[in-house]
Design a protein that fits this description.
The complex is a heterodimer.
Chain A: E1 4-10, E2 14-21, E3 26-33, H1 39-49, E4 57-63, H2 66-73, E5 79-84, H3 90-93, E6 118-121, E7 124-125, E8 131-133, H4 137-149, E9 154-158, H5 167-179, E10 184-187, H6 188-191, H7 197-227, E11 234-237, E12 243-244, H8 246-251, H9 259-274, E13 280-285, E14 290-296, E15 299-300, E16 302-303, E17 318-319, E18 321-324, E19 330-334, E20 340-346, H10 365-371, E21 378-379, E22 384-385, H11 388-403, H12 407-430, E23 441-445, H13 449-460, E24 464-467, H14 474-479, E25 484-495, H15 501-521, E26 529-539, E27 546-549, H16 556-572, E28 581-592, E29 614-620, E30 624-632, E31 641-643, E32 646-650, E33 653-657, E34 661-665, E35 671-675
Parallel strand pairs in A: 1-4, 4-11, 5-6, 5-9, 9-10, 13-23, 23-24, 30-32
Antiparallel strand pairs in A: 1-2, 2-3, 7-8, 11-12, 13-14, 14-15, 14-18, 16-17, 19-20, 21-22, 24-35, 25-28, 26-27, 26-28, 29-30, 31-34, 32-33, 34-35
Helix pairs in contact in A: 2-7, 4-5, 10-11, 10-12, 11-12, 12-13
Chain B: H1 19-43, H2 47-50, E1 54-60, E2 65-68, H3 80-91, E3 100-103, E4 115-124, E5 127-137, E6 166-170, E7 173-174, H4 176-183, H5 189-217, H6 219-242, E8 247-255, E9 266-274, E10 279-285, H7 297-309, H8 319-323, E11 325-328, H9 351-366, E12 380-387, E13 395-401, H10 431-437, E14 440-447, E15 463-469, E16 472-480, E17 502-504, E18 512-515, E19 517-523, E20 528-532, H11 547-555, H12 561-568, E21 572-576, E22 581-584, H13 586-603, H14 608-616, H15 622-628, H16 642-655
Parallel strand pairs in B: 10-11
Antiparallel strand pairs in B: 1-2, 1-5, 3-4, 3-6, 4-5, 6-7, 8-9, 9-10, 12-13, 12-16, 14-15, 15-20, 16-19, 17-18, 17-20, 21-22
Helix pairs in contact in B: 1-5, 1-6, 5-6, 7-9
Classes of the chains: A alpha+beta, B alpha+beta.
Chain lengths: 679, 662
């Protein structure tokens, strides 16, 4: 029996399982309904449905929304914050801003720990790390005893300026652990040793409130898998796109905050690489929203700050994913001034698009796609039937009539507005960062991505579109593709000119020692450990800094400075060579290499497509109705080539290949669509 | 300044562009402006800009605003077109590709001198099709005091550098001599130079985007879409107005005082008329004050637009919106229409917020489901001097503002610890950052218990912040705020919150209450200061708040046990507060509420001198004086302000007492 690798991605609706056979190099996928009350049930159901023998599994990796959902639903155990006297409300005051600047009835959601559960203790450290007031131990002990009486299980200790000297936090933790031996304690200097109290406190508090639930879940799952015969480490995908073992999840559960969201982006990076693209934008379009991420120069864009709700930042490197309210179920409507709008409101699963015949009366993108013949009336292998006349009725009543348009014109207008909204969102993540979308490929996946992908690409001037083999389960595959990865940072402020390079080297060596120890703790052998230095710089007087790669040895600082000016110019279109540059922070990323599955390419034979399963009229914006062949995706072998118009149908997705484009099936069974050269 | 801002009254056309092209371009304009804002946030030098005190706009060829940034600070709303038009007026045909202009002139529709705009013309086919503009608050623009907030200024000459429209780039050539002149008149020339470049470059981002649209859609379609985007907004607003009642409504709010006159509140009267088509405001302000708390017409119009916009939160901001709003702000020489050369930098804490809250109150009666009582006042504390922690004793500027409470609402409590209505994106600074930069140690930054105005729905809670000076030499403290006397009010029977104002060495022998505006008070090592920000005013009669809601507030210490009884008439017995165990004494609560109902009107008529005496004698405290008796004192000395009290009681009768059940 060959060994298999298993990746499981738990989403809101479905839990997807990818099973990769290391011998045959083949991948199977299966899908089971998620079980939100205990996600582990769905995971184990997926294992069973996928007929996985756990003792034959060489690697089991997992992306989970457990942490994200806990943050959204505030499903937290009794938790408390212990902080410096006078600073009990840092979590609630935040920076005072609101997400919605104009709606005086839309408030920022409440802090993760209520005021009654936030406690103060007498202590104070100054900005240099010198003690102004030492920790009042008697008071600290009384407080620990009170926390015990209050039945608190997890505690965040967040003191002012602890990033400069963590001694008081550490002592406070010891006292709590003496009094409440089974408590989980997160200290801010350990979770995030960085300046600025509000983001540090909030990250630490997030860690504390997630600790029991997330590490509980992860440990239960690890046990269950072990009982089933799995002998390796369960690997958990973290927000930064790496993975970690349950041992570290116990300490830093907050790293899983965006675990589920990261998986799709990692797949995008893999597919882009497989297809030979350095740069790619992925469009993961589902029923209510679309996730957009960017691969540039072969790497995913990483953000240093992530939040699931406005006002509650988690400061850890996280894959940058922009989510917008455009999906198959987004509602088209006409606003009070007579303008056509699309989303962000969605018909969701209830009442659903009009064509579902489940009570929805408002037209959605799905209805427009059905009306135009882009989407067939039979979905999911016949399990679901769509009612075209209900779609017509809704579009006619809500859009066509009021605007004095024909039916097809109205449906096309709905789709065009949706595509334009997605294109605008792509511009925000690309142009905003100094990237020209025309240098990119577009990866379309999710249930609805391939219906819209080519049109969005055209809008952006992107020349090629790639639709992976299983667009509906692309995310799960991402979990198969990750290494163990940890990120470390240290404040280091000094002008580049005059920086003590030995001190920088020493600081990096310190970080490397810590990183190596952590990788060893996770069972990574030294030859598989890769440490990578980075450095944040800014022009003196600026507030934001820019991270660039950093080497070691003589000349490293000068090279980093050179890179900084270049990167700055790329991002912002100007540079200031005359202005002194300042070092702000040192970063270290520690990677524990895990052997990747090596996929086997299919043999590619240049060929015509097999017979279409049907032909049907499909409406295209510039050409109108065209008689269009519909192909079954599973029947399209590697090397198949044809020109649009065509529709490619498969179990979990439909791909539109418009006129003036050509499609090919590559050796990895991706559909690649290119625009015909204009003459 | 007569007809430059008088908008057209014609009803907007329907679009002639097809709906898809229109929607695409409208959104693309918004993206082009937001990209500009994003860049400035990431490249700026001024910490005030970094804290989001900036705005961006795309203006059309005539200077009207096509789209303003979605995350812009409120106080700039509706001023960017004035500044763009000033550039056009000044330079006419002498505007060329590659030019960039600077302007901050508050007498040509600007806000105050610190807000410096950079305006770049966008050319296509040899003609101007639009202007890209970025306005940002420079940390210093010269004048008498660090930070350029000179409270005692009466004319702009002592406030800093006034920049009438001036060219900084000419046909892509950088005019370093002009730029040098501007930044050399500030206390932080390097920083100002950094922002000058960052802001100018940011406008190029918008230019690039607009030219991309022109390439794709053609110049005629894009310029038509710029007009239709304005028409669209105007049409949206006018159609909503047809669904609202018609009539005329008036209110008055007050500034605390005119330092050049006797005690007494300075009125700002706001009247709104809805006729089913447009909205019209009439403003009447008291005579301009002998301080910098006056408003130029730019800020006044901004307050009108931003106040109104709060009731139309989803409508994009552009000149179409401004066209649906007309206003008569009266003759020059008043606090709401100062005119040259009166000092106006403090408008943001003065008339600006009074007009905004007055407008909130008027609309609260019209769109009842969006009603809101008064919110806390914008406040800035400046401590400036020399930092003796380092050998060179460099200049430091501890320049601080706080979040505070917003007014109670018809269906829920006010929002606590929120940025001011002046700019909801204005982020408060981290104490850890401040402590690195200045010899000031913060010893508290917390929510103020009992700071929210009592009401059926409580006002949001305010903040308390205090600090100690360490190694500070030759240091002075100044404060720019208001509402130590014109206290943040409740509506529909709700009660006021608490007064603003700074205390020096509170709780010691040297305690002094410095009030809500003061300038250059000397301070030194060891001195401590403390100031609260007000909570929001309450909405509705506090005696109708449920005992359970009051109890929850007591457990979280948003409300004290004492004030639960005094303000809400809810008697709560602490059983074991450490474990959140309290009990509502229902019988005592009924009795207490009855007793308050019976006496509260007569308390509001108590002899003010008698109230002042009891305050000085310690029989009653500050909140009793304000919430029970409506009396205004000097909170430090206990001196009675008789005229102020009369004015304050008059408004409290109208906003609070008149709505109480018998």
């Amino acid at each position: 029996m060959g060994k298999v690798r298993v990746a499981v991605d738990v989403g809101g609706t479905f839990t997807d399982v990818c099973i990769f056979d290391e011998e045959s190099k083949e991948m199977r996928v299966t899908k089971v309904p998620s079980t939100p009350y205990d996600p582990m049930i769905a995971v184990m159901n997926g294992v069973e449905r996928g007929q996985i023998n756990l003792s034959e599994v060489s690697l089991f990796s997992h992306g989970t929304t457990v942490a994200t959902n806990a943050l959204i639903t505030r499903n937290f155990p009794p938790a408390a914050l212990v902080t410096t006297r006078g600073f009990r409300d840092i979590l609630e005051i935040r920076d005072g801003t609101k997400d919605d600047l104009w709606d005086a009835y839309k408030d920022v959601s409440p802090a993760y720990i209520r005021r009654r559960d936030r406690f103060e203790v007498t202590e104070r450290t100054d900005y240099l790390g010198h003690s102004i007031t030492r920790l009042d131990e008697e008071e600290a002990r009384k407080l620990a005893e009170l926390l015990k009486r209050r039945g608190v299980k997890t505690i965040a200790v967040c003191f002012l300026n602890s990033y400069a000297n963590p001694a008081n936090e550490i002592r406070m933790r010891e006292i709590i652990e003496e009094v409440i031996p089974d408590a989980t304690v997160s200290t801010s200097a350990e979770v995030l040793p960085e300046i600025f109290e509000y983001p540090r406190f909030n990250t630490t508090v997030s860690n504390a409130v997630l600790a029991p639930l997330v590490s509980g879940y992860v440990n239960r799952l690890a046990d269950e898998l072990r009982d089933g015969g799995y002998q390796g480490d369960l690997l958990l995908l973290h927000s930064g796109g790496g993975s970690m073992t349950p041992r570290l999840v116990e300490k830093f559960p907050v790293r899983l905050a965006a675990s589920g969201i990261a998986a799709g982006a990692i797949s995008a990076k893999h597919i882009a690489q497989q297809c030979g693209y350095e740069n790619a934008v992925s469009l993961d379009m589902g029923g209510t929203s679309t996730d957009i991420s960017l691969v540039a120069g072969g790497e995913l864009r990483i953000t240093q700050e992530w939040q699931v709700e406005y006002g509650h930042p988690i400061i850890f490197p996280s894959i940058e994913v922009l989510t917008i309210g455009a999906g198959g179920g987004s509602l088209a409507h006409i606003d009070i001034a007579g303008s056509l709008r699309n989303g962000p409101q969605s018909a969701g699963a209830e009442p659903g698009p009009a064509c579902y015949d489940t009570g929805g009366e408002q037209p959605t993108n799905t209805d427009a796609n059905v009306l135009l013949g882009r989407l067939g009336t039979s979905l999911a292998g016949g399990a679901m039937t769509l009612n075209r006349s209900l779609a017509e009725e809704a579009i006619n009543r809500v859009i066509a009539k009021p605007l004095g348009m024909g039916l097809e014109e109205a449906a096309q207008a709905i789709i065009s507005v949706a595509n334009a909204n997605m294109a605008d969102a792509v511009r925000l993540v690309s142009i905003r960062r100094g990237y020209d979308p025309r240098d990119f490929a577009l990866l379309a996946f999710g249930g609805a991505g391939a219906l819209h992908g080519v049109d969005v690409a055209r809008e952006l001037g992107i020349p090629s579109v790639i639709v992976p083999p299983n667009p509906g389960v692309t995310s799960a595959m991402g979990c198969l593709l990750v290494d163990i990865q940890h990120d470390f940072a240290q404040m280091f402020t000094s002008l580049v000119d005059g920086t003590d390079e030995d001190a920088v080297e020493e600081a990096f060596v310190g970080l490397e020692t810590e990183a190596s120890a952590r990788l060893r703790h996770e069972g990574v052998s030294d030859e598989n450990a890769i440490l990578q230095r980075k450095i944040s710089m800014r022009y003196r007087g600026q507030w934001r800094s820019l991270q660039v790669p950093m080497g070691s040895g003589p000349g490293a600082m000068e090279q980093a400075l050179h890179t900084f000016h270049e990167e700055y110019e790329r991002e912002f279109s100007f540079r200031q060579d005359e202005t002194p540059v300042e070092v702000y922070q040192l970063h270290l990323s520690a990677v524990g290499k895990i052997p990747k599955p090596s996929f086997r390419p299919a043999e590619s034979l240049l060929q015509e497509p097999t017979e279409p399963i049907e032909r049907r009229p499909v409406y295209f914006r510039d050409e109108g109705w065209l008689d269009t062949p519909v192909y079954e995706r599973d029947e399209l072998a590697a090397g198949t080539r044809f020109t649009g118009p065509a529709i490619i149908s498969q179990f979990d997705s439909t791909t539109v290949v418009p006129p003036s484009t050509r499609a090919e099936i590559d050796e990895w069974l991706n559909i690649r669509i290119h625009f015909e050269e204009k003459n | 300044m007569t007809d430059t801002f008088v908008p057209s009254n014609t009803l907007a056309r329907e679009t002639t562009l097809d709906p898809v092209t229109f929607e695409v371009l409208k959104n693309a304009f918004a993206t082009s402006v937001d990209l500009m804002s994003e860049q400035i946030l990431r490249t700026c030098y001024s910490f005030v800009i970094y804290s989001r005190d900036f705005s961006s706009a795309l203006c059309d060829a005539t200077g009207n605003t096509v789209m303003q940034g979605s995350a812009d600070i409120a106080v700039h709303v509706g001023t960017l077109h004035f500044q763009c038009k000033a550039v056009i007026e000044e330079f006419g045909d002498d505007i060329h590709p590659g030019d960039v202009f600077a302007i901050n002139d508050p007498y040509r529709g600007g806000t105050h001198l610190n807000d410096v705009s950079f305006v770049r013309p966008i050319f296509s086919e040899g003609r101007i099709i639009a202007f890209a503009q970025n306005k940002g608050h420079w940390a210093d623009i010269g004048g008498n005091v660090p930070g350029s907030f000179d409270v005692s200024a009466t004319e702009h000459f002592s406030e800093g550098l006034r920049i009438t429209p001036v060219r900084i780039w000419s046909k892509s050539a950088y005019l370093h001599d002009v730029a040098q002149l501007l930044v050399s008149n500030t206390r932080a020339p390097d920083q100002a130079m950094g922002d000058l470049h960052a802001q100018s470059e940011a406008t190029a981002v918008c230019e690039r985007e607009v030219l991309r649209l022109v390439e794709r859609y053609g110049i005629d379609t894009v310029t038509l879409a710029m007009q239709e985007t304005q028409d669209y907004v105007e049409r949206t607003v006018r159609r909503r107005l047809t669904e609202l009642p018609r009539g005329t409504w008036s209110t008055v709010d007050y500034l605390d005082l005119d330092p050049g006159a006797e005690e007494g509140l300075v009125p700002v009267e706001v009247t709104l008329t809805l006729d089913g088509k447009g909205m019209h405001y009439d403003l009447k302000g008291g005579p301009a004050v002998k301080a910098f708390l006056n408003s130029g017409y730019g800020s006044t119009f901004s307050a009108i637009y931003a106040g109104t916009k709060t009731f139309f939160p989803d409508v994009p901001l552009n000149s179409g919106f401004y066209a649906a709003v007309t206003a008569d702000i009266g003759p020059e020489g008043t606090v709401v229409n100062a005119g040259w050369p009166l000092a106006v930098t403090g408008t943001v804490a003065g008339p600006y917020e009074k007009i905004m809250n007055g407008i909130f109150e008027l609309w609260s009666g019209i769109m009842k489901d969006r009603a809101m009582a008064c919110s806390f006042n914008l406040e800035y504390l400046l401590v400036g001097g020399h930092d003796a922690r380092t050998e060179d004793k460099a200049r430091f500027m501890w320049y601080d503002w706080m979040a505070g409470g917003w007014g109670g609402r018809i269906s829920k409590d006010g929002s606590s610890a929120t940025a001011p209505v002046f700019g909801v994106g204005l982020a408060v600074q981290p104490c850890e950052g401040q402590e690195r930069l200045s010899p000031v140690i913060t010893n508290m930054h917390q929510i103020g218990t009992d700071s929210g105005g009592p009401g059926r729905y409580r006002g949001g809670c305010g903040i308390e912040k205090g600090g100690t000076l360490t190694d500070a030499e030759s240091t002075v403290m100044s404060y720019c705020c208001d509402r130590a006397r014109s206290i943040t009010w409740g509506i529909e029977g709700g009660l006021p919150s608490i007064p603003h104002g700074v205390w020096l060495n509170r709780g010691t022998e040297n305690e002094r209450f410095l009030g809500s505006i003061f300038s250059s008070v000397p301070v030194g090592p060891g001195d401590t200061f403390y100031r609260p920000s007000a909570g929001g005013g309450g909405y509705g009669d506090p005696l109708e708040r449920t005992s359970e809601e009051v109890l929850e507030d007591v457990i979280d210490e948003y409300v004290s046990v004492e004030r639960a009884a005094k303000d809400y008439g809810v008697v709560i017995t602490p059983i074991n507060p450490e474990l959140d165990e309290y009990e509502i004494d229902s019988e005592a609560t009924t009795a207490m509420r009855e007793w308050i109902r019976e006496h509260r009107r007569e308390w509001m008529n108590a002899d003010p001198a008698d109230v002042a005496r009891k305050y000085c004698g310690g029989e009653i405290d500050m909140l009793d004086v304000i919430r029970r008796h409506g009396v205004i004192l000097d909170w430090g000395t206990g001196e009675l302000f008789a005229k102020t009290t009369r004015q304050h009681r008059e408004q409290m009768q109208r906003r609070s007492v008149a709505h109480w059940s018998a």
